[in-house]
Amino acid sequence: MKIDHIGIAVSNLEEAIQTYETVLNTPCYKREVVEGEKVDTAFFKTGESKVELLGGTSADSVISKYISKRGEGIHHIAFEVDDIRKEMARLESEGFTLLNSEPKSGADNKLVAFLHPKEQHGVLVELCQSRK
Ligand code: ZN
Hints:
alpha+beta, 2,3-Dihydroxybiphenyl 1,2-Dioxygenase, domain 1, 8 strands, binds zinc ion
């Protein structure tokens, strides 16, 4: 599985975009609000992978809650899969806990599913599949 992107939770998205444009020496190529998740996202290409900055759009956003509990930082690692339903079924049969039972719409035209961090040694894992 290729690492599609690393998701980083940030409290000030505009500031973080400036920072990552400098660090990665590449402009943000995409901004997108995911209404259902109450997150504002910004994407950067780096090599074969991407960095996704995530800012909450309201205090009850999962990202805002995450930051108030744990502070800013790496939020998740996303692996690209060809068939998300097949991978979800495989991992479920291996005893992993999926945080959503059906793939949901994520940023960047993806179908996404999350695995509980407890079973990945503290890392929130996202599976993502590009929509055809
Ligand atoms: Zn992501």
